[in-house]
Write a structure and sequence with these properties.
Helix content is about 70%, strand content about 10%. The N terminus is likely disordered. With about 230 residues, it is of the alpha+beta class. It has a four-stranded mixed β-sheet, covered by helices on one side. Strands 4-5 form a two-stranded antiparallel sheet. It has two domains: about 120 residues; about 100 residues, Winged helix-like DNA-binding domain superfamily/Winged helix DNA-binding domain (Arc Repressor Mutant, subunit A).
């Protein structure tokens, strides 16, 4: 138990380090991309500088039409500067949005990996159940903090599996059918017991809970994959 808890804590620390390094890498890449992008963008005043140079170098342009043309160029330079400034703001907003999406995608990937590891651990060790109360009179099953209202047939099937687990027995489908029907196991069909197990799993509803709670051991039969000390049948 101590070794498993140590390995779990080490895996948790490794996952946390991976998240931190991933976030830092994403932020660094986006910052570098933003710096390179803004450096390579043309200067907002570049057009105005060119127009100003034309004004300075064109003393010979004294006609009314020529002066009007220079004024139009100056106004165009101002408009270009304003448009380029707005483009810079748009690019900045898009970079921030891209950063948020990348960080969210990274967080989701980490969560998926963590859930997959948890599912793998559960599949290997079985579902963790602290209490299983089977109440035949009320037709209910209390699994940890979850309450299941089952049919009488499903309750009987689960009770038979619970009693077999407390006796460390593994029951075949024919044996399950024999205990419930009161007949000899040799006279019962294996498929009848398998059908009862399927109906019990369907009644539990949650596929993860039902599949991990009721184990099918190849060539042996069915068993509850929980500690027999937590089972109570009323």
């Amino acid at each position: 138990m101590r070794e498993s808890s140590t390995s779990a804590s080490e895996a948790l620390r490794a996952g946390n380090r991976a998240v931190v390094f991933g976030v830092l890498a994403v932020v660094a890449i986006l910052l570098i991309a933003a710096v390179l992008l803004f450096i390579n963008l043309p200067d907002a005043n570049a057009f105005n500088d060119r127009v100003e140079r034309i004004f300075v170098e064109s003393d010979a342009l004294t006609a009314r039409g020529e002066i009007r043309l220079l004024e139009i160029l100056a106004q165009s330079g101002t408009a270009f500067s304003e448009v380029l400034t707005s483009y810079r703001m748009v690019i900045f907003v898009l970079l921030v949005f891209a950063s948020a999406l990348l960080l969210a995608a990274l967080a989701l990937l980490v969560m998926i990996v963590a859930l997959n590891r948890r599912m793998s651990a559960i599949q290997q060790s079985g579902i963790e159940i602290s209490s299983l109360l089977i109440n035949r009179a009320e037709g209910k099953v209390y699994l940890n903090n979850m309450e299941f209202a089952l049919t009488g047939a499903a309750i009987e099937t689960l009770a038979v599996l619970g009693e077999a687990r407390m006796d460390d027995d593994v029951l075949t489908g024919a044996e399950i059918e024999a205990v419930i029907s009161g007949r000899n196991a040799a006279d019962c069909d294996e498929a009848a017991g398998a059908t009862r197990i399927k109906r019990l799993r369907d009644a539990l509803g949650n596929q993860l809970v039902s599949e991990l709670l009721i184990r099918n051991i190849a060539r042996k039969g069915y068993v509850l994959a929980i500690d027999k000390g937590v089972i109570r049948i009323e």
